[in-house]
Design goal:
Blueprint lengths: L3 E2 L1 H14 L4 H16 L10 H9 L10 E6 L2 E5 L5 H19 L1 E9 L6 H8 L4 E7 L20 E6 L6 E6 L5 H10 L8 E2 L5 E2 L12 E2 L4 H23 L12 E8 L7 H17 L14 H13 L1 E2 L4 H12 L9
Parallel strand pairs: 3-4
Antiparallel strand pairs: 1-12, 2-3, 4-11, 5-6, 5-11, 6-7, 8-9, 8-10
Helix pairs in contact: 1-2, 2-4, 3-10
Length: about 350
């Protein structure tokens, strides 16, 4: 039988651990909420699985626990911040508030953040924007590591470079969360630890040959993660990852050309207000038509109807809010030492 936990209880538990580790109250709440939201949506490599590593970063001084970002450049609809290695979830939520304010006045608002710490699951932020009627783009890279090779090459240059888009409709929002690579660092690490393999040859080995062995995607593994499209059509993922590098490190004027500082992110956050264009009602009419057409498309596999991005995650979110969150088995062992250190009991499972 699957053990389940109250989502609110998990948020409170994560908040308590982060606060005990020295994170300011508002930052502890922000990080806890975003991590649990990741698990609610099914992104369980980027939910509470990150809490133990984040606590390690706080303990080692690699994550800044207090203070605010420095605004380096400001115009009516754009800002650039130095995140000072503050917690990524808190920084992104602050940037979203700034973007919303700018978009309500100017139709759009963009914040680019250099020197953020890791920002967790990108999908976890999107519904907060679409609930307000905004189209949201969230894009990030990590200049401090490299696991993805350029198309035609073998040596890693990039991170998976995720990009996410939140799109309001007349019904459930469209939530897109993808990487420019076929898979992620987190999944490579999990499968390698469990002694499992990928379902396809999504990586390159130390000879540049496609492989399903996740060990080649790990730091020092001698291989790399393939771009979207793989060896046949990876030029498409290559173009996308160069766009991500432009919108993050390029616009921040701070990226892979600079010295490494540790695990972190360079982040691009943008809001668009449909009311400043053709209007939200008009946008919803178009998007609702598209969603309906996708749902009406004859399934390629009988019995497996077409979904739009985010549909399964939102369904899972609703189910887990109602019946409890099922955590990946790897999470409890990672948190046990911190619970013992701070004298905080593990969250109680639901009856």
């Amino acid at each position: 039988m699957t053990t389940r936990y109250s989502a609110a209880g998990l948020v409170e538990h994560a908040r308590a651990l982060l606060a005990a580790a020295g994170l300011e109250p508002d930052k502890a709440v922000a990080v806890a909420e975003i991590l649990v939201e990741g698990d609610l949506l099914g992104h369980d490599t980027h939910g509470l699985a990150l809490l133990g590593p984040y606590l390690n970063e706080l303990a080692g001084g690699a994550m800044t626990p207090t203070g605010a970002p420095e605004v380096l450049n400001r115009r009516p609809a754009t800002q650039v911040w130095d995140g000072r290695r503050l917690p990524g979830p808190w920084l992104v939520l602050q940037a979203m508030e700034a973007c919303a304010t700018m978009a309500r006045t100017h139709g759009t608002g963009t914040v680019v953040i250099r020197r953020s710490h890791h920002i967790a699951a990108l999908a976890a932020y999107l519904k907060r924007a679409t609930d307000q009627g905004f189209v949201m783009q969230l894009i990030c890279s990590d200049r401090n590591s490299a696991s993805v090779a350029p198309f035609g090459g073998r040596d890693p240059v990039f991170t998976p470079n995720p990009m996410a888009f939140g799109i309001p409709t007349g019904g459930a929002p469209i939530l897109v969360d993808i990487s420019c690579s076929i898979t992620t660092n987190g999944m490579s690490g999990r499968l390698a630890k469990e002694g499992r393999r990928f379902p396809g040859k999504w990586l390159l080995d130390d000879k540049g040959e496609p492989t399903d062995d996740p060990r080649f995607g790990l730091p020092g593994g001698g291989g790399s993660i393939q771009l979207l499209g793989g060896v046949e059509a990876g030029h498409k993922g290559y173009g996308l990852t160069l766009l991500v590098e432009t919108l993050t490190g390029g616009l921040a004027a701070h990226g892979r050309a600079d010295p490494k500082e540790g695990w972190g992110a360079t982040v691009f956050v943008q809001f668009l207000d449909p009311e400043a264009f053709g209007g939200l009602a008009g946008a919803n009419r178009q998007l609702d038509h598209i969603v309906a057409a996708c749902h009406a498309s004859t399934p390629r596999v009988p019995g497996e109807p077409v979904r739009v991005p985010g549909e399964r995650g939102l369904r899972r979110r609703a189910e887990q809010l109602a019946t409890g969150v099922a955590l990946h088995p790897s999470i409890a062992p990672l948190l046990a030492p911190w619970q013992e250190k701070f004298g905080i009991a593990a969250p109680a499972p639901l009856a």
